[in-house]
Prior knowledge:
Blueprint: H1 7-38, E1 40-53, E2 58-67, E3 73-77, E4 91-97, E5 100-106, H2 109-135
Helix pairs in contact: 1-2
Amino acid sequence: xxxxxxHAVVVPVCLTIGVLAVIWALLAFRxxxxxxxxxxxxxxxxxxxxxxRMERSTVYFPVIRFTTAAGVxxxxxxxxxxxxxxxxxxxxxxxxxxxxxxDLEIDAFWSRWLIVIxxxxxxxxxxxxxxxxxxxxx
Length: 138
């Protein structure tokens, strides 16, 4: 049994979600570009993993030790996680904020751009549904 939603609900909801997702994608893109413009590169070593239980799975955030360009040794938890974790002892390229070296990212395409890609995808889908529903009005 199907219960179609009326156009009066689908159009404004999807268009609102789409516009908000566009704003989110633009802000995430701007934030990442700002971070990349000042970030320094280093090679880090996975010291340990911090497990965080999600609803149906566990994700592992690596604790990485690296040396900054100024020679300071920093140990910090990455914002990037994996369900399988990173092997302890593995070396990883990292990007860090020179003013706050504990604010690091693993230097990989997906860890840098996943939020932007996800927000863009949500925007495209929501706007397509909203515009498609608006144009298909009887």
